[in-house]
């Protein structure tokens, strides 16, 4: 069986380049590829198009990439936690495509499934529909959305094996599995890396066929985006 392991994030990202389209998995700050983002920050690249549900926060995740002016365009659903994102958007430094969350998920899933486009009612009659084809099905209007694919997909899993099979835990299953399928090169970082054959096939969320490189991550902060407590 092919061994897809690499030593660390730096080795996994050796060929990333300026102006690439990259997907970054996770939901908020849950299940984000922390090690890969750290490695990206060390690269002398810019002009990236980032596809992610969130844009991180000012001092963590994609927010750090925005601070370094590495991102040319963000394709996201929820961006309300990042002041630097807001500043770059309002100043015209950053191109932004906001997409309804379900539509974003389905566009990525379609990209991984080889489906070029699909029709959805979400966004009909709003700015989301501008410039897009609209058709009527059974008396209801739907707009056409195109699939999303990436040059590199960076995903984070709880456990993986040397063949690239992945298991996610909790909220990390939001966006990571579909992004793993939609990247030309998918790089997975995992909390625990085991030999091929040790994972129960019934619990694998991403088959190794979608993963080109895998490494065991380290020093995860696992930040909480918002903490609400009762006094």
TrEMBL record:
Keywords: Transferase. The keyword Transferase applies. It holds the Pfam family CoA_trans. One of its GO terms (molecular function) is CoA-transferase activity. The keyword Transferase applies. PANTHER family: ACETATE COA-TRANSFERASE SUBUNIT ALPHA (PTHR13707:SF60), KETOACID-COENZYME A TRANSFERASE (PTHR13707). This is Succinyl-CoA:3-ketoacid-CoA transferase.
